[in-house]
Write a structure and sequence with these properties.
Largest sheet: 5 strands, mixed
CATH class of the largest domain: Mainly Beta
Distance between the termini: 24 Å
């Protein structure tokens, strides 16, 4: 039996794998909502961080310094007053952190989402647009609310309903600020969102755009138009990049050979997989493995 393509890690496993400097109080915290200071939480993170998927969601707000976070098939460089929200199941990795980093790292388990009364459009919009830049006024507002959330989450009389309400307030504020800068979610944006969800689920067996157009009950041309307008990338590029990102995770396992990975991901030949990998990453699979993992 082959190993699963992507290992999904929970919050405890994330801390054990990447944050060995954490005190036991951090490691053993299993609350559904957790608030940490970036300067304490991520500063000792082990680099390089290989791409991973999580069972939990997390939000990062920078108040000082900069960092780069990989998400799906792109990298976001964050600076002061900028936010990224990472949904459970997304492929992500921290690529760099400045020495003067400060801000907030908010963990919220997926079950919390069901307790938050955001509308479906709000949740989709926030997922489709994970990066948000705040002005000073709104950043200070969000920071003060996160201070309250941190205080409540660490209280001996912690009330999870209050924590959920404060988290909902933060998410709603960020969404509303971002939506003021953009038009409401269009049909094109909704189609692009659903397309990306389907690609994450089916990319191993289905790498042609027509398959996803049929799932969405639209023409292939219309799917191309919607995804390109919403994301500035055509659907085929999304399919290729997500598939290659999965292969990068498999390459960290030195027991797997490159031809085996190509066939596991249902490519017709190892040579085609190698060409696509190099076109997408700039490295051949073997060079990538040596460069990133010294394997």
């Amino acid at each position: 039996m082959s190993k699963p393509s992507i290992e999904i890690i929970n919050n405890y496993q994330y801390k054990k794998l990447f944050l060995p400097h954490l005190a036991d109080s951090y490691l053993k915290n299993d609350s559904k909502i957790q608030v940490y200071r970036l300067e304490d939480y991520l500063r000792g993170i082990l680099m390089p961080v290989i791409p991973y998927r999580t069972t939990f969601n997390f939000l990062i707000l920078l108040t000082q310094g900069d960092m780069t976070q990989y998400l799906d098939s792109g990298a976001y460089t964050l600076a002061k007053n900028e936010i990224i929200n990472v949904k459970n199941g997304n492929i992500t990795a921290t690529l760099s952190i400045s020495d003067d980093i400060q801000g907030y790292f908010v963990v919220y388990e997926n079950e919390v989402i069901t307790d938050i009364s955001l509308g479906a459009t709000d949740l989709k919009f926030f997922t489709m647009n994970p990066y948000v830049k705040l002005n000073d006024t709104n950043a200070n507002w969000v920071s003060r609310t996160l201070d309250l959330l941190e205080e409540e989450s660490l209280s001996e009389q912690r009330d999870i309903e209050i924590c959920i309400a404060l988290l909902e307030t933060v998410l709603m504020k960020v969404i509303r600020v971002d939506m003021e800068k953009k038009t409401p979610m269009s049909r094109q944006l909704d189609i692009a969102f659903r397309f990306r969800e389907f690609v994450q689920k089916f990319h191993i067996d289905h790498k042609n755009v027509l398959f996803y157009a049929n799932l969405l009950h639209i023409s292939e041309n219309y799917l191309n138009k919607c995804v390109k307008e919403a994301t500035n990338k055509p659907p085929k590029q999304w399919i290729n990049e997500i598939s290659i990102l999965h292969s990068q995770i498999l390459l960290q396992d030195k027991a797997r050979d490159i031809a085996g990975i190509a066939f596991e991901l249902k490519y017709n030949s190892p040579s085609y997989f190698t060409r696509l990998f190099k076109k997408t990453t700039g490295y051949s699979p073997s060079d990538y493995r040596r460069h990133k993992f010294n394997l």
